[in-house]
Write a structure and sequence with these properties.
4-stranded parallel β-sheet; 8 helices; about 10% strand; globular
């Protein structure tokens, strides 16, 4: 079974929301065959719950993360994942430096932009296409298919008011939907298909 590990700093704000959104999107598409999604933090606040702002912002999007328990990222977690999906460049660079993980370590925005330069996968491609798409995105990155962007990071809302958490959740919702479409192809909306 393929697996995705979502990474931020403390594993209490951004990555729990992204984990919940991505898991939900993949389970809606693949059911019990969905890739496994989990999260951790490079400085994970081991055993802590998600911040109340993250819990509320995710709930407003229909995602329940109230049971989240933060984890400290370990080498075993990173080595076991097919995709290391980082919330910011600092996480990507820390994970990729001096390891053999750089070919499967991306920021969320970086990976989406790379996937969107590639030919689209067949509509409703199966979950087994994920590792091939990641490899193609890595080759595109090495070729410089997408110029470096100043907008690579998902901002950390820690210490901010609820509105900042909502903003991050909405941003993550958009980017995770684009990621799923980039990895597995766009789904056919049955209602739209009937109307055409």
């Amino acid at each position: 079974m393929t697996s995705i590990l979502v990474i931020c700093t403390g594993n209490i704000c951004r990555s729990p929301i992204a984990e919940g959104l991505l898991r939900d999107a993949l389970q809606r598409r693949f059911g019990e065959w969905a890739p496994v999604v989990s999260s951790a933090g490079t400085s994970g606040l081991q055993g802590s719950g998600a911040m109340p702002g993250s819990v509320q912002a995710a709930a407003e999007l229909g995602i329940g993360i109230e049971g989240h328990v933060a984890r400290q990222l370990t080498a075993a977690m990173a080595n076991g994942a097919d995709l290391l999906l980082c919330m910011a460049r600092e996480h990507r660079d820390k994970l990729a430096a001096g390891t053999d993980r750089d070919d499967r370590t991306f920021t969320l925005k970086e990976l989406v932009r790379l996937l969107e330069t590639l030919p689209a996968p067949a509509a409703d491609a199966g979950h087994e296409t994920m590792t091939g798409r990641i490899a193609e995105a890595n080759l595109a990155r090495r070729r410089g298919a997408v110029p470096a962007s100043r907008d690579e990071d998902i901002s950390d809302p820690l210490g901010q008011p609820l509105e900042a958490y909502r903003s991050i959740a909405w941003e993550l919702d958009t980017w995770t939907e684009r990621l799923v479409n980039g990895l597995f192809g766009a789904t056919v909306d049955a209602d739209a298909a009937e109307g055409s």
